[in-house]
Amino acid sequence: MVNVIGLGYIGLPTALMMAAHGVEVVGTDYDEGLVATLNAGRTTFKEDGLDDLFAEAVTKGVRFTTEYQKCDTYIVSVPTPYDKVSKKIDPAFVVSACRSVLDVAPVGAVLVIESTVSPNTVDRFVRPLLDETGRQDVSLAHAPERIIPGNMVFELLHNNRTVGADDPAIGKRVAELYSSFCQGEVSVTDIRTAEMTKVVENTFRAVNIAFSNELARICRVGGMDVAEVVRIANKHPRVNILQPGPGVGGHCIPVDPWFLVGDFPETARLTRMALETNASMPEYVLRRAFDVMQEKGIEDVSHVGVYGLTYKEDVDDVRESPTLQMLESMERHLCGSPLRVYDPWIERDVVPNQVHSMEDFLDGLDIVIVMVGHSEVRGRPEAFHGRVLVDPRDVMGDGENVYKL
Ligand SMILES: NC(=O)c1ccc[n+]([C@@H]2O[C@H](COP(=O)([O-])OP(=O)(O)OC[C@H]3O[C@@H](n4cnc5c(N)ncnc54)[C@H](O)[C@@H]3O)[C@@H](O)[C@H]2O)c1
C-alpha cells in the first residue's frame, strides 16, 4: 500500500494515477477542508482529465484522510518554498511530513520524497531524522516530479522520470512503483544526483526564458521584432530559444533555481541574473503600458485593465503569477493598484479590483494588458471589442492596436 502525503497539485494526481492503475493508495493531507471536499467526491482544482481520473481512482478504492497510514511506501509531496531573504530552500514542510511518517512507518518502509528539493536536502534535513528517531530501518528515495499544470494527466503517463536512492535495489523498487502507470523511461541514480537534476531542469528553463526576455528588451530598443528573431534563430538545428513574456510564475521555475543561488551564491551568478531578469518583466510590461497610454493620449489609469491572473493559460493556479507581481510592484511604487483585473479561470476574489465577467471588465476600459493567453481569447482580439491591447505574450496576433513586448 502507498500513502501519498500532501494532496495538492502534484500529490493528488499522483495518488489518483497510481490508484487508477491498480495500486492500493491512501492520500493524506492535513488540510481537513481539502480532505472533506475529496471525500465528498469533488476534486480541488481544475485540470484537464482530472475529474475522470478521480472517478476511476475512486472506483478502484482510493481513500483520503488526514491520518498517516501504516504501509510499505510513502510518497511525500508537500510544498518546498524558498526563504525570500537567504534564497535557500525552506525544508520545514518536508521535515514535518517526514517526521510524521516516521512516527507510523513499519519496519522496512520506503520514504520517497517527491517534493522538489535543493541538492543535499535529503542528507541535511531528512537523513538526520532517521538517526534522531532510531529509524535506520526506513529507506530513503527521491522521485522528483516534472509534470506541467494544464497537461498533468498526459504528462504523468508519458514523461520520463528520475528516481534517486541510496540502495539500487530500493531505487528499482520505487521505479517499478512509478512504472505501474508511467510509460516513460525511469532513470535510477543516487539521491543527490536526482535532487540536482530536477533543480537543473527548471534552472535551464529559467535561464533560457531570461535570455529571451533580454532579447525582447534589446529588440525594443533596437527596433527589431523579437518574435521574428526567435522564430528564425530557432530554425538553426542547435538553437532552441523559448518565448519572451511578462515574467515567470507558478510553483517551479521562479522558485527552484533560487535553491542553487542560495546554496552556491558565489558560483550560481548566471542563475541569479536570469531570475532577476525574469522578475523584472512584470514591471517592464507596466512601463510598456504607460508608454502606450501616452501614445494614445490616455491619462487615467482607471482606463487600463489586466486580463489574466493565473501564471499560465488555462489553469486556475495564481501562485507567483506575473500579474500578481505586477500589481505588487504598482502598489510599491504608486501606493495603490487601481487596475481592474479579470480572469475567467478565477472565481474567487484574489485581488481588490477584480471583476467576474468580461462585460464588467471591459466597461469603460481603453487599454487591456493581456497577461495570460487563455484559450477563450488567444488569437481573438475581437474578444476585447476594439480595446487597445498590450500583448506581452504575443497571443493576440498582429494589428494596429496590438502592442507587443
Ligand atoms: N505544482 C507544480 O506544477 C509542480 C510541478 C513539479 C513539482 N512540484 C513540486 O511538488 C511539491 C508539491 O507542490 P504542489 O504544487 O503540489 O503543492 P500544493 O501546495 O498544491 O500542495 C501541497 C499539499 O501538501 C499539504 N501538506 C503540507 N504539509 C503537510 C503535512 N505535513 N502533512 C500532510 N499534508 C501536508 C498541503 O495542505 C497541500 O494540500 C513541491 O515541492 C513543488 O515544488 C510542483
TrEMBL record:
<feature type="domain" description="UDP-glucose/GDP-mannose dehydrogenase C-terminal">
    <location>
        <begin position="305"/>
        <end position="398"/>
    </location>
</feature>
<comment type="similarity">
    <text>Belongs to the UDP-glucose/GDP-mannose dehydrogenase family.</text>
</comment>
<dbReference type="GO" id="GO:0016628">
    <property type="term" value="F:oxidoreductase activity, acting on the CH-CH group of donors, NAD or NADP as acceptor"/>
</dbReference>
<dbReference type="InterPro" id="IPR036220">
    <property type="entry name" value="UDP-Glc/GDP-Man_DH_C_sf"/>
</dbReference>
<dbReference type="InterPro" id="IPR014027">
    <property type="entry name" value="UDP-Glc/GDP-Man_DH_C"/>
</dbReference>
<dbReference type="InterPro" id="IPR017476">
    <property type="entry name" value="UDP-Glc/GDP-Man"/>
</dbReference>
<dbReference type="Pfam" id="PF03720">
    <property type="entry name" value="UDPG_MGDP_dh_C"/>
</dbReference>
<protein>
    <submittedName>
        <fullName>UDP-N-acetyl-D-mannosaminuronic acid dehydrogenase</fullName>
    </submittedName>
</protein>
<dbReference type="InterPro" id="IPR001732">
    <property type="entry name" value="UDP-Glc/GDP-Man_DH_N"/>
</dbReference>
<keyword id="KW-0560">Oxidoreductase</keyword>
<dbReference type="InterPro" id="IPR036291">
    <property type="entry name" value="NAD(P)-bd_dom_sf"/>
</dbReference>
<dbReference type="InterPro" id="IPR028359">
    <property type="entry name" value="UDP_ManNAc/GlcNAc_DH"/>
</dbReference>
<dbReference type="GO" id="GO:0016616">
    <property type="term" value="F:oxidoreductase activity, acting on the CH-OH group of donors, NAD or NADP as acceptor"/>
</dbReference>
<dbReference type="GO" id="GO:0051287">
    <property type="term" value="F:NAD binding"/>
</dbReference>
<dbReference type="GO" id="GO:0000271">
    <property type="term" value="P:polysaccharide biosynthetic process"/>
</dbReference>
<dbReference type="InterPro" id="IPR008927">
    <property type="entry name" value="6-PGluconate_DH-like_C_sf"/>
</dbReference>
<keyword id="KW-0520">NAD</keyword>
<dbReference type="Pfam" id="PF00984">
    <property type="entry name" value="UDPG_MGDP_dh"/>
</dbReference>
<dbReference type="Pfam" id="PF03721">
    <property type="entry name" value="UDPG_MGDP_dh_N"/>
</dbReference>
<dbReference type="InterPro" id="IPR014026">
    <property type="entry name" value="UDP-Glc/GDP-Man_DH_dimer"/>
</dbReference>
